[in-house]
Amino acid sequence: MIDELRTERLLLRPLTLDDADAYFGVYGDPRTWEHLPSGRHPSRDVSERAIRSAIDARLAHGFSHNAVIAREPVGLLPAGAFLGSAGAKMLDFDAWNLGYRFAPAAWGHGFATEAAAASLEAAQTTRPSTPVTARVLAENEASIRVLERVGLQLIWRGRSTSEPDGVEGSTTHLERLIFADCRLDDHTLDAVIALG
Ligand SMILES: CC(C)(COP(=O)(O)OP(=O)(O)OC[C@H]1O[C@@H](n2cnc3c(N)ncnc32)[C@H](O)[C@@H]1OP(=O)(O)O)[C@@H](O)C(=O)NCCC(=O)NCCS
After folding, report:
1. Which of 138, 147, 158, 184 is the most buried (most CB within 10 A)?
2. 81: Cβ below 6 Å to ligand 1?
3. What percent of the chain has pLDDT over 90?
4. Domain 5-194 class?
5. What are the sequence ranges of the domains in the chain?
């Protein structure tokens, strides 16, 4: 079980329920969902549930999503500021899903790249035989760049056909890119595509 990760400028430590306000500040902010507005957390309760889920996942799988904390002041952000979250979620099948979301005030400093690289390494160390995957909307250039920068390979680009277009709230039809740290077998790739 990984307790915390330190990078040059960041501390990644397990999320706790005390983070709920700060976490909702990021996940409830429409600017952090520009490419997927329906994903925004509509209430603090939803954020709290997401944190509980990360806590449970860490206990079950040894690693999950972490709070990302600034170790030094950056612009208007003081040392100790909650910048966002980053980590890897164990999917229902044997694959990690790498993810991150940061407060707009923290964008443009290379923090996502730094946190994603540490999270990728932690997921690989925790379960060396489990592939690390990542899904990103084709329009999300910044996130695509992060995945490229941490060394993941683009393995698929397209639209999932697992649900018919037009289902209310469905986002599976949006064009996505899938990245991974190794070749995926057909079953795993199909399962990742079906997630949308
Ligand atoms: C995507 C996100 C995490 C990037 O965070 P960040 O800390 O600004 O990223 P970095 O500073 O590490 O930049 C990564 C790269 O993206 C580039 N980039 C940053 N913003 C960009 C933008 N709006 N358009 C194109 N490229 C951009 C940077 O120049 C950098 O590339 P480089 O290394 O070649 O210079 C952040 O914008 C965010 O939280 N967005 C909302 C949530 C989200 O989209 N999460 C990912 C879901 S798949």
Report:
1. 147
2. no
3. 89
4. alpha beta
5. 5-194
Matching residue, tokens 């890897």: 88
User: Shortest CA distance to 85 belongs to which of 38, 53, 37?
Assistant: 53
Nearest to 171 by CA among 146, 139, 147, 149: 139
E strand or H helix at 132: strand 132-137
Is the CB–ligand 1 distance for residue 100 below 6 Å?
A: yes
Q: Please tell me if the CB atom of residue 40 comes closer than 6 angstroms to any atom of ligand 1.
A: no
Q: Give the up-direction half-sphere exposure of residue 167: CA atoms within 13 A in the CB hemisphere.
A: 10
Residue 170 contacts residue 159 (beta carbons within 8 Å): no
pLDDT of residue 171: 79
111 lines ligand 1 (CB under 6 A): yes
The predicted pLDDT at position 173 comes to 81
